[in-house]
């Protein structure tokens, strides 16, 4: 679905143009065309391919979807794939945006995400001096917008992890902790798949042989690279902490087990003594003088209580109870 | 076993030719010969070696089999080894395909897999413009076909893993989970051995000094590289998740243990109290006044029941029961 | 907030100058201006941007804060971000310092840390020969001061770890050990995030294509790099040791468990024998001759005591008790 | 001990020559001398050093032994160290072979292994066309022979691992499994020390700046590299699988423990109920009407049996028994 | 403290010279001065700095101490830091040696180790041909001596590990094993910190752009590199084995636990049966005919013994006892 199709000249909007006129505007000097599509059909892409002369393999990738994030150069055309990650009901949902960038055009195709890039266009149009850098700047603005959306999601993961860290050392929460840590791990993995390859690919847009399209905006691409690199470090940190937290959680379970074992042993001991005493005075020997004593019974109860008390006190002292 | 042997000129099929005429066709301009063998005998390979002038070491490797995936350059000849992986009855079976590619010939030898590459030839013949790129394009088409067959297998592994993730947090399935995780791990390792070296080798076909044969189709080889790279990332992700899942499974077992320990301790405590009481009133002292009371027995039962009840309630409250 | 703004010429202080005169002094030969800000407002930064002609993206980063440590080159301007880490009440608090360095100016902006860099300025002014190297030397002096502050913090972590190592092998401290190890791990991670990226970035200031500003002081930057590299190795060592310590702690818990299991089993066994004996002599058979024996009771007690003693001795020998 | 000393010219054997004549033959065109020593004494090596002009450090290494696998270039001389690994009684025994290779000589010194390289010499002499490539081809043939001997050993390790995999999921074998896995791990480590450094070193013989001696046989050295690379991957795979297997084994032990805990709890519960009932009816209250009932006893037994039966059935249903 | 100060010319000792004459001898052709200090004071270093013209940062490092091993180039001066590791009473003690090397001088400063380098000087003086290579050869000789001293220490660690490996599979040693493994790990880490950075630094002395001082002795530095590389591999191997051994030890503890659990369960079961039987015949029902039987009591004992025996035998068969 076409969202909009606009021609720009020296940083200023010329006009909303119909798709058919694109090639006409492409021929004008210092002019570039910026087209935004959403959930594009193969037919729409085919039309764009014809208008802009896009490379077949790039269009095929865009049609097929499910690409990993990447930046590919086809002669003087750039094809950029980025993942869009939205959070809904505690789950991460993935979409994709494909951007085709040439020296006088930019085409973005958004799939499976509800959040649009209208804000990016508005911001660009408010800064004609920047926009005058051409399609490279628009590519930067799109990438920057995508990357900026990763931050709140990753912040949320960090908050979630911190909340979990408090809980690890609480008794009785081991089962839910481990489940949450696992879920968190899966989310981090998903974000890593979005961030790391994009970071690697963006690195090629600001250092070494920078593609023609990006040369004028290379400092800006380094800025995007820098953000991605920060996100990547944060994700690695979270991942590492989760791994430690899983181990710590297991340790806490084992420690719990030991403590329960100690309490079980302590109470078993106390009652075993009582039962053994009672058993002994319950034997049927004829000649058991204490059985006939007037205060034999209270004495027996007293002995049992005393023994139990001493044991209890000993276990208490040894911190088994 | 010879499957077919065809000569092509400028993207079009010239003729099915007998093996003996190969060298004749190789001499024609803009012409290349595409031979497909299956489970080739040393004799067949020797004949091919003579016709195409293949390098001795490459032929030796093809005869010997059990190679790791690789791309080797012998002067202007390429020798490519790829693993074919089929799934049968939940098990992965491995075959191999060896491809010899020169500027005017392509020879593929398939071993130990039931699925053929006739579809590749058909597809190539339907697109003469592509086929006109020469033997490099055929090599691409073969590699693409092999790599495409990895996708459904890896998808299946992902599905299997997701099913297992559900089960990890279920009680009582630990034993079968761990077994399945282990089996899954072995499959992932097998696929890694197929994918990673091939990815590394394919990298050399599209960047840096690209072999002569592949120059015209280098964008296509990058596409193959890209697919392999995606598969590789997915496999690494699965592997990492399996490692975590094994740890989580162990944690769940430990948590289960703790819970059983608690229940054991709780019931042992309740019965120990009852038994101790009964033991005390079973002692044979002469002077135990409550034994003569008319309602002594019900009182005793009542006390025992009450104590047990209180304990039960306490354990319930502490979630040990 | 402006802390100070001073012009230097050939290593000597010229004058404290008002911010408005900066551009005037920048025009003088062999002269550079060193400005220090603290918790700068966007307005202050905007003024500095105008005076020194700072790059927009660098200023934006400084305004935004929360950068990872880095060294960025904008044409002939360097932008350096470093983390300031203070310890308060056993917790690490993070601040940031941003340094803009050109061939004739140096601007440092300190955020969120209470410790200033007045000592650095004083030291520099005492060594005019060094200061004559220009703004590069000041940049070195600032970096050196920041890095030097990491040492006592990391030393403290090492001391903490050593104290923990003693405790791991002590019984009964597992729960607090694991908690402390985890806290320590988090601190190490935080310091790693400060040290490692800064080390990588500093590497580019002494080898390869060294930025113009740093060329005259390159040996000094290697010294900073070397310190960072030592810190990094130490942190990696601590991290590795923590991982091992967590495993060892878990092992100690498991060993404790086994020992408790053994003691529980031993005592359960001893009392089970006593109770079984008493139970047998408490049976109500008419014909149990030993019950009528005059010394039956003491004999019974003797047998029970002997059996218990033998068992106790056996368990003692097997080191279960 | 000298094994043999032969001069070759253009791929053909000239003569068995005495050690003293070596320098004479070295002077002939297109001629090279191949000497094989076994457990060479320092004196023998000194003589060889004089004849061939070997580098002092290489000879020192050969005298000293216990080198890691390596390929060292001393001007136009190559010094190659390889590990020979034999299996005896399930243990791996390590020997070493040192090869000195110059453009017109090859000297191999074998230490501590019973298997000789006579087969290599015979094979080379049967292929004069190959041997005509000179000393580089002989070096290849020796390396190929050494590497080929690693294959059956590593195959055996794989077989051993597969046998163990079957056993991991068997109950009661945990102790012997873990011991075997550990032994296997040590063997893999030993082989890794033989294979990995040799692989890295061999890499330099076929790509980049290839030493003069090896230039004509570079495709052959790539073949050796390829074999080593396959072995290396296999060893890494085994190592990874062992690590997982150790974890799985631990999980199986924990699962076993849980099951034993459940059975213990179940039986303890059943008998606790019986004992408590018996204890109650063994109390000595005067007024316990059921004690006088004619069928009181069978009733009591019935109740106890019923309760036990119900418990047993419940535990069975919950799979605790 | 000055140990000695000697001038050499063309490999031969000229004279022991006073420190004041150093600059005089430095001016002579083909002459170099070799000074050895021990626990040098800042004043001594300042004097040396003046005589040899050492770089300020290098001298500062030497004064400060606690450097990581490194090789630094200051124009045509080399500054080398190495760790000296001695073993005393089973503990590793670390010292440092700093070497300043120029084309006509060598200055070594030894700190905190009792073992001197007199042997190195003696060996060098015995080989004038070698010593004629100049200060580079002396640097090599010193490095070689330091590295050679690591070997026996690492051999001892290996022996210690092997002794531990035997003990891991012994019952009841888990607690001391884990403690020893941990101590061993710490030692390995300390040695890694000495070996790995030195290895990396030495790599730059034999390949790539080799510093002027070392050019004539580059094969010798490769030899040092090679030794360090072997040590490094060995240390990595030990470290890896320790990690596995810790896991194996934990597994053995878990297996022990399971076995104790089984024995506890078995004995608990046997006694529970006996106690339950005794309890039943201890009930006070009026009508329990077997109580009046003449052989009731032996029969009861017989039944109890039989049941216990059967259970015992069953448990024995199932290897629980």
Automatic annotation (TrEMBL), chains A, B, C, D, E:
<keyword id="KW-0472">Membrane</keyword>
<keyword id="KW-1133">Transmembrane helix</keyword>
<dbReference type="Pfam" id="PF01544">
    <property type="entry name" value="CorA"/>
</dbReference>
<comment type="function">
    <text>Mediates influx of magnesium ions.</text>
</comment>
<keyword id="KW-0460">Magnesium</keyword>
<keyword id="KW-0812">Transmembrane</keyword>
<feature type="transmembrane region" description="Helical">
    <location>
        <begin position="295"/>
        <end position="315"/>
    </location>
</feature>
<keyword id="KW-1003">Cell membrane</keyword>
<feature type="transmembrane region" description="Helical">
    <location>
        <begin position="264"/>
        <end position="283"/>
    </location>
</feature>
<protein>
    <recommendedName>
        <fullName>Magnesium transport protein CorA</fullName>
    </recommendedName>
</protein>
<dbReference type="InterPro" id="IPR004488">
    <property type="entry name" value="Mg/Co-transport_prot_CorA"/>
</dbReference>
<keyword id="KW-0406">Ion transport</keyword>
<dbReference type="InterPro" id="IPR045863">
    <property type="entry name" value="CorA_TM1_TM2"/>
</dbReference>
<keyword id="KW-0813">Transport</keyword>
<dbReference type="InterPro" id="IPR002523">
    <property type="entry name" value="MgTranspt_CorA/ZnTranspt_ZntB"/>
</dbReference>
<comment type="similarity">
    <text>Belongs to the CorA metal ion transporter (MIT) (TC 1.A.35) family.</text>
</comment>
<dbReference type="InterPro" id="IPR045861">
    <property type="entry name" value="CorA_cytoplasmic_dom"/>
</dbReference>
């Amino acid at each position: 679905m076409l969202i909009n199709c606009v021609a720009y000249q020296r940083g200023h909007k010329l006009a909303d143009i119909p798709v058919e006129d694109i090639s006409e505007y492409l021929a004008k000097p210092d002019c570039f065309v910026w087209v935004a599509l959403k959930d594009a059909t193969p037919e729409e892409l085919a039309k764009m391919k014809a208008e802009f002369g896009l490379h077949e393999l790039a269009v095929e990738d865009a049609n097929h979807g499910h690409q990993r994030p990447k930046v590919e150069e086809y002669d003087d055309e750039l094809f950029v794939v980025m993942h869009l990650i939205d959070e809904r009901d505690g789950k991460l949902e993935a979409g994709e945006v494909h951007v085709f960038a040439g020296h006088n055009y930019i085409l973005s195709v958004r799939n499976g995400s509800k959040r649009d890039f209208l804000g990016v266009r508005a911001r660009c149009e408010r800064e004609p001096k920047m926009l005058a850098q051409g399609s490279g700047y628009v590519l930067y603005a799109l990438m920057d917008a995508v990357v900026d959306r990763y931050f709140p999601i990753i912040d949320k993961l960090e908050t979630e992890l911190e909340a979990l860290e408090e809980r690890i050392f609480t008794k009785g929460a081991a089962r839910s902790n481990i489940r949450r840590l696992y879920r968190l791990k899966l989310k981090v993995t998903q974000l890593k798949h979005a961030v790391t390859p994009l970071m690697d690919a963006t690195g090629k847009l600001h250092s070494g042989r920078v593609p023609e399209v990006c040369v004028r905006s290379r400092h800006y691409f380094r800025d995007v690279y820098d953000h991605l690199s920060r996100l990547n470090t944060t994700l690695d940190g979270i991942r590492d902490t989760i791994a430690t937290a899983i181990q710590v959680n297991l340790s806490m379970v084992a420690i719990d087990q030991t403590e329960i074992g100690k309490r079980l042993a302590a109470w078993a001991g106390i009652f075993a003594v009582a039962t053994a005493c009672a058993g002994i005075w319950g034997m049927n020997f004829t000649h058991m003088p204490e059985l006939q004593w007037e205060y034999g019974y209270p004495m027996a109860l007293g002995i049992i209580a005393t023994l139990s008390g001493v044991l209890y006190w000993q276990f208490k002292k040894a911190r088994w109870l």
